[in-house]
């Protein structure tokens, strides 16, 4: 009798939706589902359990066929215990997510920061080698770093927290307590502050206003582009990665952002032979629109 192939499960728990994937031992996607994330510690746990059981139903495999579960989630993550703290967009102050989910489904669980998980997933899905940096342009700003297929977190786990790199001491106050951090320029929260008369989706609204000829909107978008290009430059000069992958919700702005980043990098290269030699525009890649990078990366981490 042939022994059933064990699957690896990955969950990407975000503030609005949770995505779950199942990978076979060769890393191929054999199951995927999405569902709304319910907020609050107990409901986040319940969402995670429903996602795992949903994959079991979708793949026709019992929970015992799942070798491991990895979870990518925002907030402060203790990778040793699986505890999550301060995940504010999930209305979650503290949750022993790894232990409690493992008790509910009977499968080993590992928990990781969502940006690190997305970096690993992007590295796997795009079949990259060497050193890669994943730039997450979302509500906040952070980067994940992968070296030879493994996450690099630094001595204290803060490698990649470039959102809290100050670039203007006279700039806006940052939630971290500093002033003028990159996150106050290149993030969804920065756009919301700079374009307060936007609707439910300020980033999309400000781009539409810019395209309609609004001068103020054009200045907001230009500041976002300059900040995002600065992030690429920081990652290139500090890590010298082969590729810099742009992910996060803001990437969906498309050409106004991505084309603007590349144009800015090219402009800087014209002004600096040093930057020109680094060929930064060529290193920039964009995560595809419907990519499951964070969930796939979580599955890899869980193994």
List the helices and strands and how they pair.
Layout: E1 7-13, E2 17-23, E3 29-36, H1 41-59, E4 66-73, E5 76-78, E6 83-87, E7 92-95, H2 97-105, E8 109-113, H3 114-125, E9 131-137, E10 141-147, E11 150-151, H4 188-194, H5 202-211, H6 215-239, E12 243-247, H7 255-271, H8 273-278, H9 280-283, E13 284-286, H10 293-302
Parallel strand pairs: 1-4, 4-8, 9-12, 12-13
Antiparallel strand pairs: 1-2, 2-3, 5-6, 6-7, 9-10, 10-11
Helix pairs in contact: 1-2, 3-10, 5-6, 6-7
Task: Provide structural commentary.
The protein has 303 residues and is an alpha/beta fold. It folds into 2 domains: 7-118 and 292-302, ATPase, nucleotide binding domain (Nucleotidyltransferase, domain 5), CATH 3.30.420; 129-286, Nucleotidyltransferase, domain 5 (2-Layer Sandwich), CATH 3.30.420.40. It is 39% helix and 23% strand. The protein has 10 helices and 13 strands. The chain has helices at residues 41-59, 97-105, 114-125, 188-194, 202-211, 215-239, 255-271, 273-278, 280-283, 293-302; strands at residues 7-13, 17-23, 29-36, 66-73, 76-78, 83-87, 92-95, 109-113, 131-137, 141-147, 150-151, 243-247, 284-286. The strands form 3 sheets. The chain has a 5-stranded mixed β-sheet. Strand 6 and strand 7 (92-95) form a beta hairpin. Helix 1 (41-59) crosses helix 2 (97-105), helix 3 (114-125) packs across helix 10 (293-302) and helix 6 packs across helix 7. The protein starts with 6 loop residues before the first strand and ends with a helix. The mean pLDDT is 93.
